[in-house]
Protein 1
Amino acid sequence: MTKFNFPPSIASRPIWGTLEPRKGKAHLMIADAEGAEALIDLANAAPALLTMAHLIYLPKDTGKRYSDALAALKPASIYVGPSYDAAESRIQRVLSDAHMGLQIYLAGTEGLMGRAMSAALAAGLPLAAIQTEHRGSVARRMQCVHCKGITEDVTTDPFVCAHCGLNLFVRDHFSRRIGAYQGVCVDAEDPGEVPPQKELYS
Amino acid sequence: MTLQFNDETFTGDYTFRNSKEAIRRFPFPFHEDSYMYSVNLEPHKPGPKGSAYEHRFDVDEHYLSEMKDRARVLNDDPLRCQSLPHMDLAGWDTLELIMTSKAEDYPDLFELHRDGNRWRWVNKPMAIDQSFTFLDTSTLPCGPMEYILRQTQGDFAILDHRENNLWMDAGMVTTQADWSLDFDIGMNFMEWHAPVPLAHQLGVFERALKFLLNLQQGAPVRRLNWTMTVNPNLDTSPENYHKWGPEKTTITPENVGEKQHLRVELQTLWRLPRSNALLFPIRCYLIRLEDLVTVPKWGRRLHRVLRDLPVELATYKGFIRNRPVIVEYLSQFDDGAPTSPGCFPD
Amino acid sequence: MSAGTAKIAVRVAEVVDVNELVKRFKFVRRDGGEMPTFSGGAHTVVEMRDGATTRLNPYSLMSDPGDRSAFTISVRRDDEGRGGSLFMHNKVKPGDEMVISYPVNLFSLDLRARKHLMFAGGIGITPFLAQIKQLSHAGGNFELHYSVRTAALGSYVDELTTAHPDRVHIYYDDKKQAIDLATLLDGQPLGTHIYVCGPKGMIDWVRNTALDHGWPETAVHYEEFLAPQSGKPFEVELAKSGKTITVGEHQSLLEAIEAAGVDAPYLCRGGACGQCETDVIAHEGKFIHNDHWLTEDQRTGCNKIMPCVSRFEGRRLVLDR
């Protein structure tokens, strides 16, 4: 099962949707891992849409499970790459070329969607032209409020900042500009008293 | 009356003090013996003489020391001042509003001379005499918002008005009650208020937003907000929480009157003319409990408010761990006598 | 909140015939002081004292937002209307003393825009005149497509094409010239915002075409002041103030409430801002909703009315006012 029902939360926490075909002059789709399933569902609903799309896919730990199925959807252009960092210059290139009328479809982990959304907004695309659908891991992309470093794929609360080493607790407060949730020192008032780590949503 | 400016610190040895006059004019926020969120906005009209509401932008005895503290914080962390690219015009609006208001309200401290777009600004307390061209950023040492806010007490957020919402797209924040401009910049009204407990369920933010979207030029409004801070630390930022957080553990029954401060924010909201944005100044006032209780009405009332405050609010405001000590201390000053309505001393 | 906004006492400094349908009015402060600055797209509400009748009509400010010496507006004569524009055309003379409101902007530029793409039809040009002046000072990127009936009725065409020959495009109806919208919408840079002001048909056409081309609604801004429609007189009970009033044939419900001395909030008086939204306590009859504020649910629920532009036909209407 790759769909997850997130518990209700505060107003700054994104509510991920379900991808739907939309009218547009160009279509950019970015997905990671199980996010491929959302694109396959979208293609089933609107086969012609995929043939107009530029598709960027990052399999992460799913290996070759989805790559062939995505290629079979016959997107106008497809890139399968090892990581967002590797794909970033390509994404920037596509965005710098884009015009109004572009529709963006993001699917997969919160980290991938947060990062790609942040890049698209910075390029000037209106938020309303971006659709999202969460699939797969519930890992989060966390920004340390203290050192500003970003830790990818956080699955526990608290966690250790990959940059400054502080023990951070996981907030639901999310910045679309940064594309990450906020992590705040968990033992600030009583240094060393770090609660035991729990899996997110456990 | 000529203001005497204090030489004091808001960090390290914490030499901040309120004079008798500053205590008397402190903007005490509780108009009754209990507290709950409400859309407590009222017109920001010049208030009683000598009060914190007398002028559009209050300048008090802490001015020079606060500006020194602001420069220190900005030097340590330049991300405390940010403006998204489209907010430049709103920055000029801000500069114009503050310069014209201060020059009119404090002619002995500030002067503004205008000849078309050629302006000269004189800030006597800070020994600044700056000639520049209005709307030409290259004639100022930094952006217009940063320039004037390095000379103005209080934090400022500038809210862009679009899509039937308000977006926090610029600001300078160095005296905040534990929120991060760097993280929140670009968020809309509902998003940056998201972490506040209870108020959403009460519909406070929907009502406040609806009101603010219709806020008109020339008709600013104000409200007070409050929290509790250990030591007179203006910069209680999340960025430095791991540095000031441990100070919360230093409160004892013996030192609570001296170390524990009531922190009040005088928030005003202004429609800016050129950009159609809203200016949101958040002016912080601190008072130690032992000074506050010198006004008997305030001592009685603060005791009752803090004692009866819902746990969620005491937690959100960050003083749940010290509440028992604070309430015990304040109880000495509450003889159970009724208090008069309104915030001002009897 | 009390009705409307802060007021400015002004004198009419100048009345100019722009063409056979349009007159331009210039207002200066009676006390000799400066006008407030404003943002392009803002309007002012002009109070017209016409004998026993008071009308409050919104007009877009067309002068330079940074010019604090005066405000100017342009008024198109509407011979079929309720008389506001006829009053301005026939009765207002230089030297007259009038009262106008502080500027209010319900059609402001999105200052994030990488490019401002403007569409004007007829007298809908006025807010763009101020916006273009604002953008020109700041080196802003804009493009105007302006549709007029004939050269003789093309208000401010010469001024615009002289100042901005590469950015302004004029289309004459009588020469069968039309805006090629589909082509224009294709290839605009990311971050372009569309603005449209003109007849309802034009606004709908631009909005729908943009939507079809994948532009989100948040990138398409429009302003359409609806003039209150005349209609059959009707009676209304005002529950809070305990009054029963009659709304005249050429009077709006809001005007009738005000004429009865009841303070009612408003900003745009054109069905757009939502400020005058009023709760319906009881009704027997049908609503004639003319606003574009209420949602479909609120309309079918029959529990709200926008008294600035909407009317009622039936036996009984009770409002929470």
Protein 2
Amino acid sequence: MLAYILRSLMQGLVVMLAVAFIAFSMFRFVGDPVVNMLGQEATLQDRAELTERLGLNDPVALQFARFVGDAARGDFGISYRQGRKVSALIMERLPATVELAVLSALFAFVVGVSLGVYAAIRRDGWIANLVMSLSLIGVSLPTFLIGIGLIYIFAVELRWLPSFGRGDVVMIGWWSTGLLTKTGLQSLVMPVLTLGFLQLTLIMRLVRSEMLEVMRADFIRFARARGIPERRIEFRHALRNTMIPVITIAGVQLGGVIAFAIVTETVFQWPGLGALFVNAVQFVDVPVMSAYLLFVAFVFVVTSLVVDLVYVALDPRLRTGNPAMAK
Amino acid sequence: MKPRFLALAAALLGASVLALATAEARPLKWAASGDALTLDPHAQNEGPTTSLNQHIYESLTERDHAGKLLPLLATSWRVLPEDPTVWEFKLQQGVKFHDGSALTADDVVFSYERAMQPTSDFKGYLTSVEKVSKTDDMTVQIKTKGPNPLLVNNTSSIRILSKAWAEKNNAVKTQDFKNKEENFAVRNANGTGPFILVSREADVKTVMKRNDAYWNKGKVPLEITELTLVPIKQDATRVAALLSGEVDFVQDVPVQDIARLRSQPKIKVNSGPENRTIFFGMNVGSADLKSDNVEGKNPFADKRVRQALNMAINRPAIQRVVMRGESVPTGVIMPPFVNGWTKELDAAPPTDMAKAKALLAEAGYPNGFSTTLHCPNDRYVNDEGICQAAVGMFGQIGVKVNLVSQSKSIHFNLIQRNPAETDFYLVGWGVPTYDSDYIFSYMYHSRTGSQGSWNATGYSDKDVDAMIQSLSREVDLPKRDATIAKLWTKLKDETIYLPIHHQSLSYAMTAPLDIPVDVGNNPKLKMVSFKGS
Amino acid sequence: MSTDPARTERAPGRLARFWDSDIIWSFRSSPVTVVATVLAVLLVLAALAAPLIAPYDPFDPASLDLSDGFSRPMQPNEITGKVFWLGSDGQGRDIFSAILYGSRVSLLVGAASVLFSLVIGVGLGLVAGYVGGRTEALIMRIADIQLSFPAILVALLVFGVARGLIPPALQEQMTLLVLVVAIGLSNWAQYARTVRGSTLVEKNKVYVDAARLIGLRAWPVMIKHVLPNVAGPVLVIATINLALAVIEEATLSFLGVGMPPTQPSLGTLIRFGQQYLFSGEWWILLFPALVLVLLALSINLFGDWLRDALNPKLR
């Protein structure tokens, strides 16, 4: 058990190092950091001096070590475009993205699991069929089109909901929240629906197919033979066994939700990390790009660690073995 | 006794009404398509940046919405009768910075010196300046290299910041990356202007509150209590935000939405010309182009090629379809507001594809050639659409043009790099000094020292340079105007740039706001009144 | 998840059974699938034959006439009198032709990137399954990471890096290639997982040992046996990924990092059309969006059916 957790931790560390190396290579080799920082008017002497100060003449291994050390302390340098500390930018944008992503994931999970269970239990009912067909349309609808559609209907024609931004936010310490004001909550509705929709359809389809598979398993047949009520079988036995893979996937998808926010944030001009990243890509603002990459990797490592632990808690057989093998 | 009492009562009444009016919160949300690049008042000579900064920082003089020069931080100015190379400015008494310190001549001298630093984007306004000095606390003298009768025109663009504040916060120079420090002035501000910076998140919003201690308070309405600038890049979202009441004022109304907005009962749209011309620039200076398919030769270096391209542009069609009438086609890169503009210069060559093809063939390109056009997609009205249309028109005479359209800061970077990294580009030029000299020295002068910084064409002509330099020293105005006319005749004939049109602007706002279009596209929101007009 | 035993169950001769009557029957009995397939085939054919069908060449800017701009669908243009079936955009570009050419770009990028990720994914899956040990752990760990990084992020990163590395003059010509690589690199992990699973199962079979015993190299034998087994699942993944890739390309173009305005893909067309959400020129946004959704939907429906048909347990 402890060994398993330690191994997960080690793997997470290796992943972080690998991603850090990619981020470092981007910083070091994409564009010329010195030119990007000083601009074209700088003198040769200025450039040489900055190159020296930034340690760009040192061996690459040393530079990488320094980069990792800085990153571990949250120091990602200065944004080429905004001239501000990248860490400050990220902290400023983080609350917007986290609130959006967590609410979307919650929405997708609750609605997705309910609809999936329903579609599995009433697998031949017309509502279930309708839901399944709609879910396919959902998979085929690009996120940005959903966003544009919602804006057109609810912001332009009906004028019920705001079309962009977070509305009024309240500061709790350094955390800005939109959950405590009316405009803040209104502003959340469309982005949450847009971002959650794809995840919703994925979770729903997954729940349905897992549940159908579980319902065919022997232990369910035995349960039926023993005369246990159908409701109880469905919700006690089938659902519980369905949830193991669903929680795994949903957990891993949380990272996905955060990064998928890129598109949603752009459409709704949501002042989060995704919008920051898209702007950074357009401006080739490498410090921001590499910091964002590390951030997403960090979220991924943490969520998959948590998922691994939940997995162990839910499935005693895995407490000794390697979960990858059991899959 | 009695009248005096009445006057006092009236004054008190007036004061209490005023107090009532000021107590009421009057926020205004202002949407624009792009954000200011920085708050540093001398870092970027760019429209949206100036648009925001002018509300926080002020200059010695200002332009009203029609372009008229008015006193601001300077109450009066004159050229010293004993020395025509020295301008003297008397400063306004009682002006306070947002931090409470008083404006003195030291701050003005400091700000001008800061604006003349190599990294300043405003040094081009002050090329003729030799030295700025204070005579006393409220008097500043600007000594020019030769007599410059029009220097005062340039002062409306040089914003004044507090010397003590800049020194304390390490913002005397531009950003010092070496110490991984942020330049304080990029995100913080301390001006004398009608609004005080509260918070700024680049690309998200900038919040300002009314400066209740504004020195000019009685003279301007200054009714807005809180001013928020929100950049909204997407056209549709920006208009939606106005229609749904999320913002009160949209600075960049997309031309396609003007008609719909006009038909809305509670929305007012004001349109008018901007002091800005949109045009293409070509790399005429290089021996060979990187982006073309012609080996060892630069087709743009041949005047006939440039004339052919100029003739291929169907300006009326661009005006009608791309701009929906919101532009004035032109044949010169000078808006009509500018000293030196004439109707004859403004005339554009008629579209003539046959003649254009003949000219190309004469120049040795009967089958045309190919090149790449760089275009911004978030700066000027329908900039990407203009480029697309022009690419089609150039294609019709056999010049195959690849189009690369991207965000303004990348685009401008290509142009400003030395040497420029583009052979063919779209740019728009506004003329805050209302004089041709500004266009000449930024766009036509060779790229040397502080001049020609936006001249990415590689055009360099010693005679032209000499004539441009003479403009800032010529005291005899008719003689100076004659030089300007001579320069324009020569330069228009050279066809270094392909002019397209003078841009028109539309502002949309919720009633009863009535914000007039500002010819410099720097709306003066201290003038806004909620009482209507 | 217990899918591996299922695979072994239906492992032998999958390719042979692919066309057997069960499948054909299941296909015929699902009218939705038939409609979707016909639609998908029609859209793909129309896109391939774009130069033959399209009345105009929207990629040739020289052929555009600004005066044709903003023509309403099926109505003669006020100035030129020309009729455009689905209207024209602000440049006078025929929307119908632009959609045909645009879907061609979208499908080309989609297909090429699917092929790219398929080759990488199958290759790495084979290596992982066969070599095992650290190599396997490394490859599968990378696949895990890749799967959890959404495609759009990977694609944006690749795009950003390419933008920094490729000189500005070449960027436009390279856009198509960069898109293919960006989207391809973001979708290979699923193939790798499937192929690895199948390879693991095959590796322990007697014939592999037998082949080794008689001195044959095990590699060719493996490939010969593994590939047919994974053909079904890989085909399903590829089909669904094609729809995903088309959407991804549209999203990138929508974000402004995709195809240039002079060679619009469906996503670029939607980006332009979005400007006219208010001004009444609805056709510029609606038709390309509709085609994009129909294209993705019909491919998805087909892929969905294919998955169910190849996995009898679910039907």
Protein 3
Amino acid sequence: MNNTLALLGLLGREPSYGYDLKHSYDRYFGVQKPLAFGQVYSTLARMFRDDLIMALGEESGGGPDRKKYEITLTGRDKVRQWLFTPDVPSETLQSELFAKTVIALLLDDDADGLLDAQRAEHMARMRELTRLKRDADLLQVLMCDHGLFHIEADLRWIELTSARLTQLKKELQSA
Amino acid sequence: MSLIDTTTPILSARGVHHAFGQTEALRGIDVDVHAGEVLAVMGPSGSGKSTLLHCLAGILAPVRGTVAYAPPGLNPVNISGLGETERSRLRLTDFGFVFQFGQLLPELTALDNVSLPLLLGGTKRAEARQRSEELLERLGLNGFAAKLPGELSGGQAQRAAIARALVTSPAVLFADEPTGSLDSLAAENVLTLMLDLVREAGTTVVMITHDARTAAYADREVIVRDGIISAGYRVPA
């Protein structure tokens, strides 16, 4: 996820101090990995430099935590551009497992075993996310569901690949 | 707090083989089901999942191997050695069943469907009615007791079927794709309600599913492939 644009998007709701913005971000997106204050302030400084936000006055002391920021029109355009530009579906997570499977087959090692081990890892994570959903609010439920559906997609690939291992092995070894 | 007793399995299959004609469906299954756990049985279509469930539940007698049933505090029973009548009685008294489709009798109301197993077991009508109503209410079906299955949504019908399966307080609930015919949201609601009830009662569940998101509600899963339990889950030493 693009932290900068998510922070800019949050600023689009109302002007905010860095401190409040960090907590807002953590509430929506930082359940597993909250943002560091330093990262928030350095991002705000960059956005300020790029005219995506402006300062609304400064309280005595003048540190970055004393400034209230507001999104600019350029900033709003940037957020909308981000929102409505579809993402390229990511294949990076799967490629590691794909490479492991191919190498295991080429080495005549236990590809089935590694897929089973990965499946167990995926299922354990799915159980964890399913447990998290139990007493969660709807926002957290949606976040967990997003993770669950992605892991499920990986599992389907694992299942299909498991079923094709014999054929795959023949092809790779005759190539 | 976990109510799972991992010391003694409530169901234990050893070397279970089963065949339909020349087709071997199970080729030597060893599996333990612990009391109070929710076990998901996964695997590709035609892998033998349903046959395994039918053997564990005494619907089928395996051609070879044993299935031992050890209800807590009682002597173990070798289900695979029982005759059809005894297995049938055991299914009525100790086991509950939920399937994917068509399990409610269409001419009976939801309440009568749920009461039926109790009445068959000799419970008095007034008591059967009261217990059924309570369970329907727990499953969010208050107001639907007098409806016929055809007047219920898929999710409501499945909840009524779960009530019918649980009304006798079975020691083991066997569920074969219990939410397979429902959309994601209805499936989640039905599953959550079902598992809340069984975990509260300490009921053991054996649940077949091809869906990983459903299996994630279980305490653990086993995978059946080509009639055997997949070795899996262990990184080679």
